[in-house]
Structure formats: structure tokens, C-alpha cells
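Sanity check

After download, print the first record. It should look like this:
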Amino acid sequence: MVNQVQSIALDKLLAHPDNPNRMSKAKFSKLIRNIERTGRYEPLVVRPCPQKTDCFQVINGHHRWRALREIGYKTAEALVWDVNDDDTDILLATLNRLGGSDVLDKKLALLKRLNKSAFDGRTAKLAKLLPQTSSQIKRLTELAISDCRKAVENHKSQILNPLVFFLNDKQQAVVAKALSAAMSEVEENRTKAVKNAAALTYIAQDFINSPKSACKKKRHVL
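Expected C-alpha cells:
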């Protein structure tokens, strides 16, 4: 039956070799703790394995599958979808990436309620289960809900946008040299990623401000 949850032996579940989703060790540990604490988890999504009969290939839920194995489960609850290779690739590319975003005042109210009722203000213990760190939870729970509008505006101004492009070896060497040179203009005590972002922004702003930067001029392309 379509979308009926089945109990499948873990040794009959195989990871999809092209699953692109990765999870940090810290988040994986939180996933394990959540399953251990509640005994509940979202069912995996699998399909009959094309290469091996009587087995199933995981489409969504690779980390839950790994967590269940580490905890000692013998079976996993799963939805079996009869999908071809093309549809499977689409699902692999979307299921772990399509999602909404938090409404901040509701998120704050939820964190405050959890922190007060279930964990008696012990943010370190709560942080072992939630994506946020203990210090982040502490700051959020201390924020008055009435200040949410201001917090939302601050949050919007701090949204990090990914910038993805590909370089050949020569271009990469030039960019790395430029970033290294621009690092002297970047504040200390930052992560490498933040420093690189700040250095790249500094280089771009310097180029824009330069009288020679008239983008109409032709430039040599590496």
C-alpha cells in the first residue's frame, strides 16, 4: 500500500552511494540523543534496491539509519516508494534541502517554554538535543518576545548567503594569494570562513572604489 510505514531490518537497508547530505558530528550526536530519549524518529524513505534483491536503498534518512544502528536497533520504520533512478535523484537533491524558516517570536516562545518547563533553565542540557548551542539558547531565551520585531530586523541583516563558483588551478592560486594579503585588514578572533568572507568583501569594495575599476574596461581573463 502506498505510504504505509513498514518495519524493515537494518541489515536490509543500503545507503544510496550518491547521497549528498552530510551532518556534523555534533548534530549527529544530538540526533542519537533525541532518538534515545524519546524512542521516536521520522520514518525513513526507501525504495527496492535496484542492484540487490530483498534489500532496500535509503533515499531519505541516512543519518537516522546510522543513528539507529549505533543505538542498537535491529529494524527501522520506513516508507517504501517505488521510484525510478531519475525520480530518486530528484528526491536526493530535494528532500534534505526543501524546508521553511522559523517565525522568530514563535521560536522564542517555544524555546522559553522548553527551557523553563522541561529543563528548569539548564540550557546546556537542552543544547544537547536542539540545533542551537547553549550560549545561543541562553541569548534567545533572555530576549523579550516584545523585542522580536527588532530581533527579526537584526537577524535579516545577518543572514549568510552562499556564494558558489568554481576555479581552475591558476585562478585558485590568484584568489588564495589575494585573500591572504587582504587578511591583514580583517578583525582577529574570527573563524576561517568568516575571515575569508570579510577579506573577499574588502577586495571587492577596494576594486569598486578604485578609479581604475570602471567596469567598462576590458580585463584580462585568467
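If your output differs, re-run the checksum step. Summary of this record's structure: Residues 169-213 form one domain.
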